[in-house]
Specification:
Blueprint lengths: L1 E5 L18 E5 L5 H7 L8 E2 L10 E5 L13 E8 L11 E6 L12 E2 L28 E7 L2 E6 L4 E2 L2 H4 L4 E5 L11 E2 L1 H6 L15 E9 L3 E2 L3 H8 L2 E17 L7 E9 L1 E5 L2 E11 L2 E6 L7 E4 H13 L11 E9 L7 E15 L4 E17 L1
Parallel strand pairs: 1-2
Antiparallel strand pairs: 3-11, 4-5, 4-11, 5-6, 6-8, 7-10, 8-9, 12-13, 13-15, 14-20, 15-22, 16-21, 17-18, 17-23, 18-19, 19-20, 22-23
Length: 392
């Protein structure tokens, strides 16, 4: 999952420590461009392509790369591509945030990823891309889908394969191409700082009545997920029109697992006996199951229990990051299988004057939304050892 940072806070900084959190990355937002001011006031400026001079590339921009061989005055169609640069997760310090998945933004391969070929395969016929490997669906585990961009001098770039036996596609590996940034219509990113640990440690208050149908929720974290980490019905073209990024928030709230009333006025203790799932996933407001038969290509699918499911596919990188974060926060459960636990506890009141009793467990919920605000998926982790009780 990705946090966001303004480019102005990174360029010029040195010796910065990388996050030790697994499956994490940074999206850089362009806050330095002179076209930011123009595009907000001039309709003609919305289609302006601004030349990029340095790295890292901004993630709230579509980037057109152009390469013109020496002695060739006209830039032909084969020498241009429109792409997104999605930073590789868990980049080492030596990479300086310049390792990317290069996602195709236009054309018949829209939404797929450029792939490095293995040395010796297609090398003899690599002129103008004839020997390039065909673009593939995104898989964060495939090192041949990762490239390191090098800025030879201001405004001139080339790509190297991260895989030791790799060779980048002809256009990206050419020396040297130029990059031009433009602002897409469906890409509105804001500040996302990741987990707010002090707020997470406080836990929500129980300042609501027992009969309340919805317990108050507290947002304790925010990230973004590029669209390639999520799969939905309709294919990549439909998905990209809806949202280039998904917003991920983490909420805390109390979930009622047991309630009773003291009708006789004589009870001093309450025995809680309840079955509770340690985790649950919802799509379109309906609880869904983990479809292990569709687990492939680095994704896991969550689909309705009824036949012919559509569901949502989530990159294993996102799922593993969520589980890591939950275990760090005290969640106990099975990583793979659905798990139901019977909770049996006895609570004693100070006297027999109470009328209602309720027992709650802590839930941390990841909410995945498209940037247009529509809900894609929610993933509940129920902390079965974190109890609170309320007497009225």
């Amino acid at each position: 999952m990705y946090t966001t940072r303004p480019l102005s806070t990174f360029r010029g900084s040195h010796g910065e420590r990388r996050s030790e959190e697994p499956f994490s990355g940074s999206l850089f937002l362009d806050d330095q461009s002179e076209f930011n001011i123009l595009s907000s006031s001039c309709c003609w400026a919305k289609n302006v392509k601004e030349p990029l001079k340095n790295l890292p590339f901004p993630q709230d921009r579509i980037i057109t790369i152009k390469y013109s061989p020496r002695g060739e005055k006209n830039i032909k169609r084969a020498n241009k591509a429109t792409v997104f640069f999605v930073p590789v997760l868990n980049q080492p310090s030596s990479a300086s945030f310049n390792r990317y998945h290069v996602i195709i933004a236009k054309g018949r391969n829209k939404g797929k990823v450029y792939v490095c070929s293995k040395e010796g395969i297609g090398a003899c016929c690599s002129c103008r891309g004839e020997g390039d490997v065909k673009p593939r669906p995104f898989d964060h585990r495939d090192v041949h889908q990762q490239m390191e961009i090098v800025c030879e001098k201001e405004g001139l770039f080339t790509a190297k394969s991260v895989a030791h036996d790799g060779q980048p596609p002809w256009l990206l590996g050419s020396k040297y191409w130029k990059a031009y940034a433009s602002k897409p219509k469906n890409c509105h990113l804001s500040e996302a700082l990741g987990l707010r640990q002090p707020l997470r440690s406080c836990l929500p208050d129980l300042n609501f009545p027992i009969h309340a149908r919805d317990c108050p929720k507290v947002t304790i974290g925010k990230w973004y997920c590029p669209f390639v980490f999520v799969k939905e019905a309709g294919g990549l073209d439909v998905q990209m029109k809806r949202a280039l990024y998904y917003e991920m928030t983490l909420e805390q709230f109390w979930k009622e697992i047991y309630t009773c009333e003291n009708n006789s006025g004589e009870e001093r203790t309450v025995e809680v006996n309840a079955l509770v799932e340690s985790k649950a996933v919802f799509v379109d407001g309906k609880e869904v199951g983990q479809d292990n038969k569709r687990r492939r290509d680095g994704f896991i699918w969550f689909a309705p229990f009824e036949s012919k499911p559509k569901g949502v596919g989530l990159s294993l990188a996102i799922r593993e990051r969520m589980i890591w974060e939950q275990k760090k926060g005290g969640w106990i459960g099975d990583d793979e299988d659905e798990e139901v636990e019977r909770i049996v506890r006895e609570f004693g009141g100070e006297n027999n004057m109470w009328r209602r009793f309720a027992c709650y467990i802590l839930v941390e919920r990841y909410v995945l939304k498209r940037v247009d605000g529509s809900l894609a998926l929610t993933f509940d982790f129920r902390h079965l050892i974190k109890f609170r009780t309320k007497w009225e």
